[in-house]
Design brief:
By secondary structure, the protein is of the alpha+beta class. It contains three helices and four strands; from the N terminus they run βαβββαα. 36% of the residues lie in helices and 19% in strands.
């Protein structure tokens, strides 16, 4: 997986492989900067952001919230979730 600064949808397998590689210190994974998200089997979404050097993962009920968290770095995941609940 190449680095990307915009939110990008990937398969759940690709997201899992990235997190595993990052956590297990596989060569090159810490240097890749990504904002990725994937749809889980239950219909929720997991988003991963490591742009700051730490690898953060958050779960969301809908795709729009996952993308909003990845692209709006001024809002916390909790803020995004709360806003999403009010809109629906």
């Amino acid at each position: 997986m190449e680095g990307c600064t915009k939110a990008r949808r990937v398969s759940i397998e690709e997201l899992g492989n990235f997190v595993e590689g990052w956590c297990e210190h596989y060569p090159g994974y810490k240097e890749k900067k990504v904002r990725i998200y994937a749809r889980n089997e239950d219909g929720t979404y997991t988003a991963v952001d490591n742009m700051t050097g730490d690898c953060w993962a958050e779960d969301f009920e809908c795709e729009d919230d996952a993308v909003a968290w990845l692209e709006d770095r001024t809002a916390s995941a909790e803020d995004i979730r709360a806003k999403g609940r009010k809109i629906k």
